[in-house]
Amino acid sequence: MEFVNLIGKKMGLDKLDILGELFHGKFRHLLANILIHLNDTDLINMAKVSTTWKKILLSDKWAFQMYNKALKLSLNSNTVAAKQSDTREYALHREPLTYIQKVAPTQINFSKKTSRMKANTQSNQSSSFSRHSQFSEVAKTLKNTESLKVCHRCGSPAKYDSHLQRATFKRGVNVKVVVV
Question: Which residue numbers delimit the F-box domain (predicted)?
């Protein structure tokens, strides 16, 4: 068999599925040689990559048998581990954390302190959002020669004119001028 235009026609692409190209190009004997060198976990991971790669596994009889054996062993070991360590039931798909994840208790009691802390964080978030909106409104009205500063007395947004070396800000109806 010739390898003419097998992968060369796809040169320059960002992503290229070489195994898919070998599969569609009728080079299954090369795929069989590649699959022989994969271990059980590699075969399981290969089936998860894409439907094309799963079709490659299904087309090779030996690799498919090894994949099924590996999958059964993995399922059996995970169910035993799940029963022993009280981990989540869907641990097969969350393998890296199966041994450290515990099932959360069904009832969670919140004390008054935690509810107060939650209320404080919500008020801080809303106040920071309102300060952000104040500063963004003032920033929209800046001229080319002005910059945005914070009043050192009250923390309000102020327009600073570098030529005059002073800042002006509005707080409510009053307009104040602060020399910096």
Answer: 29-60
